[in-house]
Amino acid sequence: xxxxxxxxxxxxxxxxxxxxxxxxxxxxxxxxxxxxxxxxxxxxxxxxxxxxxxxxxxxxxxxxxxxxxxxxxxxxxxxxxxxxxxxxxxxxxxxxxxxxxxxxxxxxxxxxxxxxxxxxxxxxxxxxxxxxxxxxxxxxxxxxxxxxxxxxxxxxxxxxxxxxxxxxxxxxxxxxxxxxxxxxxxxxxxxxxxxxxxxxxxxxxxxxxxxxxxxxxxxxxxxxxxxxxxxxxxxxxxxxxxxxxxxxxxxxxxxxxxxxxxxxxxxxxxxxxxxxxxxxxxxxxxxxxxxxxxxxxxxxxxxxxxxxxxxxxxxxxxxxxxxxxxxxxxxxxxxxxxxxxxxxxxxxxxxxxxxxx
Amino acid sequence: xxxxxxxxxxxxxxxxxxxxxxxxxxxxxxxxxxxxxxxxxxxxxxxxxxxxxxxxxxxxxxxxxxxxxxxxxxxxxxxxxxxxxxxxxxxxxxxxxxxxxxxxxxxxxxxxxxxxxxxxxxxxxxxxxxxxxxxxxxxxxxxxxxxxxxxxxxxxxxxxxxxxxxxxxxxxxxxxxxxxxxxxxxxxxxxxxxxxxxxxxxxxxxxxxxxxxxxxxxxxxxxxxxxxxxxxxxxxxxxxxxxxxxxxxxxxxxx
Lengths: 357, 255
Fold this sequence. Notes:
Distance between the termini of chain B: 56 Å
Number of domains of chain B: 1
Order of helices and strands of chain B: HEEEEEEEEEHEEEEEEEEHH
Number of helices of chain B: 4
Strand order of the largest sheet of chain A: 3-4-5-6-7-8-9-10-11-12-13-14-15-16
Number of helices of chain A: 2
Mean pLDDT of chain A: 80
CATH class of chain B: Mainly Beta
Structural class of chain B: alpha+beta
Low-confidence stretches of chain B: 11-22, 246-255
Number of strands of chain A: 16
Helix content of chain A: under 10%
Shape of chain A: globular
Oligomer: heterodimer
Radius of gyration of chain A: 26 Å
Order of helices and strands of chain A: EEHHEEEEEEEEEEEEEE
Largest sheet of chain A: 14 strands, antiparallel, barrel
Distance between the termini of chain A: 42 Å
């Protein structure tokens, strides 16, 4: 029989552990754990909603909790969306379409040593347009990371892979990305982080442009993307959080004609999230990106192309209970360019239901 | 200049005040099932709520199949989960001292300096954190202390409440203190007990948000996919537009 020693170095038999197990079974039945995601104090303007929520809580607590949970560290959720996109092809000639979308997210986190932690995420996003099927996509996304805390700094690095498949066109690509970051809690409520990314975007069915717009090299298009991101997050109150993100990116492609896809971009993106009640949350996000093409000139012109790209997103999410939530969202995209063919505007409305496993 | 100085002083005072408020209270960060709290000895029992702050002398009672998780800091480094059918009294917050007349608690203490000391007292023993992870169970006057990580010190208590000699319990060992003050063990913890601890760690990681996606990478990829389509269609539109012009010499004009 295997033996070990305790604090006083006396030999100890493992058989003794049955005492502990017996005691455990008296008090500790199959452990089931609820992952609560609640927010603080509801506002007076939402008093009625609060009363309804409390009634619902009381009702739920009377229901026996026999729910089976995922293994520790694992989170999963599935969402379905339906909506309308006013400009599916991001073109000056707007053409809208109705879409449906299915999204599945899986997250796994495990502590390896002390503060070293491993994380894994998988996302599957299936987007279907009813008429403009060339814009329908299937996105598979994997992300691995190692995260540690060294002194006052949070550091991490990892690998990110996205595989985008277009159902009815040849724009499919693999996007490999390596990332590394260092972050720090400035105070208990303020966190900032610098992240560097190197990405390789490999198109599988799209040849790289040769010396003219409609001629192609005998090799697939490959883009290399270098990015530096600085983000600042404020958890101002339990209900209110906000942040600001800036990103600098440089894209280098193997296209020859006017080095068509080589650009440098600068992005600024503030966001605001507010919990009206512990079940109702609102989010506003805005981003501005300036894109300067290195050599690309405007169509039939001599000026270098410059784009100003604006995105505004807003939405509300209402938690029906601990597993189910409903959301409404609106996205506005606007590209203001000195090339008329690149000018476009888009509105996307969607409603979604999310289930947390 | 004076205004800026006043502002800095004000900010410093607010920050100091807010951190000291938390330092003298614990927060309920998760609940399951029926959990009652008594905020002070003269108060009535009331339903516990997530994010409720409790101060010293507060009591917590869990029903069958209920759990209540308390954080002693905002970063969730010092955490105690009260298991079902337990009753706990917070005797002090800093240093952290908890009285467990009946029931079971799991504790993960990763920043002991923030709370100076962490001790769980039962009618027959005191168990305290020297390292990070342990559980204490009190049932019918018998105490079971289990150490899952680093070290725990354990002291027996006589009927007058006097403490005996403190002994260190090593990682993966448990000990039982009987109502008459005698000790059984230490004994190696069973694989099931260690699995319970791993489950507890996984549960804490999920509370801390570990395993969630880092940043908005999916949103960025959805945008990337959309823009790729837009780029491709722009290239086609441009080819059509430039196709009306006389063809070039094939070497391109921007190389």
